[in-house]
Amino acid sequence: MTDNAQLTAYVERRERLESVKTDAADDIKELNAEVKSFGYDLPTFNAVIARRKKDRDAVAEADALLDMYETAIAGGN
């Protein structure tokens, strides 16, 4: 494959991926609207999604630290 043909192939591949990314973003927007229409809190919904991506031990550690910090602040007032 010539350099020009290879570059063209990369550009076209990137354009296809950008199109897929745009379609996925549109689908996520629609899903978020549906989630909200059923009365769910969108920031909490998004937090659940983010937490599910993480390792369970990392989530438990973050929860423990958050609880510790909140307890320390509440005790300081």
Task: Give me the secondary-structure topology.
Blueprint: H1 3-37, H2 42-53, H3 56-76
Characterization of this structure:
The chain is an all-alpha fold and 77 residues long. The chain folds into two domains: 1-39; 41-77. 88% of the residues lie in helices and 0% in strands. The protein has three helices and no strands. The radius of gyration is 22 Å and the shape is elongated. The model has no long low-confidence stretch (mean pLDDT 95).
Short recap of the structure:
This protein is mainly alpha-helical and 77 residues long. The chain contains 3 helices and no strands. The radius of gyration is 22 Å and the shape is elongated.
Flag low-confidence runs.
none
How widely separated are the two ends? Answer: 70 Å
Morphology: elongated
Largest sheet: none
Number of helices: 3
- The number of strands is 0
Q: N-to-C SSE series?
A: HHH
Q: Note the beta-strand portion.
A: under 5%
**Percent range of helical residues:** over 70%
Mean pLDDT: 95
The secondary-structure class comes to: mainly alpha
Number of domains: 2
Radius of gyration: 22 Å
